[in-house]
Specification:
The complex is a heterodimer of chains A (306) and B (266). Chain A has twelve helices and four strands. Chain A is mainly alpha-helical and 306 residues long. Chain A has one domain: Orthogonal Bundle (MetI-like fold). In chain A, the strands form two sheets. Chain A has a two-stranded antiparallel sheet. Chain A starts with a helix and ends with a helix. Chain B is mainly α and 266 residues long. Chain B has two domains: 38 residues, no CATH class; 205 residues, Orthogonal Bundle (MetI-like fold), CATH 1.10.3720. Chain B contains eleven helices and no strands. In chain B, helix 2 crosses helix 11, helix 4 crosses helix 6 and helix 7 runs antiparallel to helix 8. Classes of the chains: A mainly alpha (306), B mainly alpha (266). The interface between A and B is large, with 85 and 92 residues. Chain A: InterPro entries: MetI-like, MetI-like_sf. Chain A: It is a multi-pass membrane protein. Chain A: It is found in: Cell membrane. Chain A: Keywords: Cell membrane, Membrane, Transmembrane, Transmembrane helix, Transport.
């Protein structure tokens, strides 16, 4: 005879089993067409390049060495691969500056939105959501038309006589930076706004009652309370900015490569799939470090605010 | 102003916010205006004209790519929404059980990896399968799109489920409804707005994808975004502006619909 306890246990086991069955299709397709292939990339990064692309099934650490070093073809000595290091540093620098720029612009914007009346808040949220869901390529293309030599910025400056010849913005790092800040701004604003909306302004009032200045209220009360949103926004901007492909392809021209363009090159003309794989894993490692920092930070602030 | 001292005021914030909103929309407005430019070059204004819309409409490559985008988007959105709904039912309204955290992480995993890395991984994986099976159809793109659309479809469905009242379902069970009948008659109708929102999000995400599609597609499988990327790299004509304008209108229409559906619950 089954006791009540045993029956309850069996029911619970059945419930858990059903829940696994129910989530199986989603987990399976994500494993097959997203997570699983990442493991293949890891394996490929330790193989020898084939002559016409793809790989030979032969272990080799060369690809990982080639991520940062280059082998002299005559005497086999290793030296730092200046081109790769430059691209790594440029990508990290551009991703960090983009994050800072979107934060500097996005924080006040989110604050502005959160301090509107309940009714108009939805309208502002809608206005920030539209660019968010508009095709990234189209938005990048829109930036291209604004900043090119015949674009609206140069035309106006020329007409006003401020400059005598167009400023070359397109195909520079600045162009990539402007483009990325433009396309990723909504990704920064939305999570900050989500935190800001819940902000209790009685705390701000209490700050003023205690003779705090506006800046002090911002720094000591508002900022710490919306910090989870700020961190989430920074992560949401940093990850796609580091791996950005469309923006540098369209605005950076051929010379100003970022990591994604370097990776693409290895699978195209470069015909070095192992190196491309090793570079992809390297990008993943940087992203994972950023995510770990986020998780630790989020955990900490979670404890503090209960 | 009624209040001389507003506690919500921060110096300069309104100016920055206003600048942000203008800067967000200005390039898009310029892009749309130039779609109606009669001149062949995009650097001068040659009068108002619909001719670039006509030329895009008559461009078979554009039409093919658009239809392909819709086909992939519709199938991927449908599958990802069904799978996401099932996964959401399996991961909400329960005490934590072994594997729940794993499921959250697995479902959101596509969001954590830069698109370029997923693109490269799928290029390698699918090229192996292509050699092995000889199949080179749209199935690869549909599988890839379904996978990365799942976390987006999952989001609104899960949110809806978590806010849902359990009373009606309990009442149905008390009245001897079978679990399936309870689901069909109670849970599903209540969940419907979330599912619709998820479906639209997934469709927009699929329609917008450039990077993963660029790496996974075989020859002659351009979607509208990858076709446009190729054209922009080759040099620009107002035809791209015209295509972008139509694409924009479509996105805005879907987002507006989404916004109203997901706001409705309050």
């Amino acid at each position: 005879m089954a006791t009540a306890e045993e029956v309850a246990k069996a029911a619970e086991r059945r419930d858990i089993r059903d829940r696994w069955l129910l989530s199986a299709p989603a987990l399976l397709i994500i494993f097959l067409a997203a997570t699983g292939p990442l493991l293949i990339v890891l394996v490929y990064s330790f193989l020898t390049p084939g002559s016409y692309g793809d790989v030979k099934w032969q272990f080799s650490p060369e690809a990982w060495i080639a991520v940062f070093l280059e082998r002299d073809i005559f005497d086999d000595t290793l030296s730092v691969a200046a081109a790769h290091v430059t691209i790594f540093l440029r990508s990290i620098k551009l991703a960090v500056v983009t994050t800072i720029a979107t934060l500097a612009l996005g924080f006040p914007t989110a604050y502005f939105m959160a301090t509107r009346s309940e009714k108009t808040r939805d309208l502002w949220l809608f206005l920030i959501t539209i660019p968010f869901w508009t095709n990234l390529l189209i938005r990048t293309f829109a930036v291209l038309q604004i900043i090119r030599n015949e674009g609206i910025i140069n035309t106006i400056l020329l007409k006003l006589g401020i400059i005598s010849s167009p400023i070359q913005i397109l195909y520079t790092d600045t162009a990539i930076l402007i483009g990325m800040a433009y396309v990723y701004l909504p990704l920064m604003v939305l999570p900050i706004y989500a935190s800001m909306e819940k902000l209790d302004f009685r705390l701000v009032e209490a700050g003023y009652d205690l003779y705090a200045t506006r800046f002090k209220v911002l720094r000591k009360i508002i900022f710490p309370l919306v910090k989870p949103g700020v961190i989430a926004g920074s992560i949401l901007v940093f990850i796609p900015a580091l791996g950005a492909y469309v923006t540098p392809s369209v605005l950076g021209g051929g010379k100003n490569m970022m990591l994604s363009n370097l990776i693409e090159l290895q699978f195209g003309q470069g015909r070095n799939w192992p190196l491309g794989s090793a570079l992809s894993i390297a990008v993943m490692i940087i992203v994972m470090v950023a995510l770990l920092a986020y998780v630790r930070n989020a955990g900490k602030s979670g404890v503090r605010h209960g | 102003m009624a209040n001389r001292f507003s506690i919500k005021h921060q110096p300069g914030f309104t100016t920055i916010a206003a600048t942000c909103f203008i800067v967000l929309y200005l390039p898009i407005v310029v892009l749309v205006i130039y779609a109606f430019n009669a001149a062949t070059s995009t650097s001068e204004w040659g009068g108002f004209s619909f001719k670039w819309f006509q030329s895009a409409w008559q461009n078979t490559q554009v039409i093919d790519a658009t239809l392909r985008s819709f086909q992939i988007g519709a199938i991927a959105a449908m599958f990802s929404t069904i799978f996401a709904t099932m996964a959401a039912l399996a991961t909400t309204r329960t005490a934590p059980y072994p594997g729940l955290t794993f499921k959250y992480a697995a479902i959101n995993q596509p969001l954590m990896v830069p698109e370029i890395v997923t693109g490269v991984a799928l290029l390698i994986f699918f090229s192996r399968i292509k050699i092995f099976t000889g199949y080179s159809g749209l199935g690869y793109l549909i599988a890839a799109h379904t996978a990365f659309c799942i976390p987006f479809a999952y989001l609104p469905i899960r949110a809806r489920l978590e806010n849902m009242d359990l009373t009606l379902e309990r009442a149905a069970a008390d009245l001897y409804a079978t679990p399936w009948r309870t689901f069909r008659r109670i849970t599903l109708p209540l969940l419907w707005p979330g599912i619709l929102a998820g479906l639209m999000l997934a469709f927009v995400i699929s329609l917008d994808d450039v990077v993963i599609t660029e790496f996974v597609k075989s020859g002659g499988q351009d979607t509208l975004p990858t076709y446009m990327l190729g054209q922009i790299r080759r040099g620009i004509t107002p035809e791209i502006n015209a295509i972008s304008t139509v694409f924009l209108l479509l996105s805005v229409a879907i987002v507006t619909l989404f916004f109203f559906i997901s706001r409705k619950r309050d």
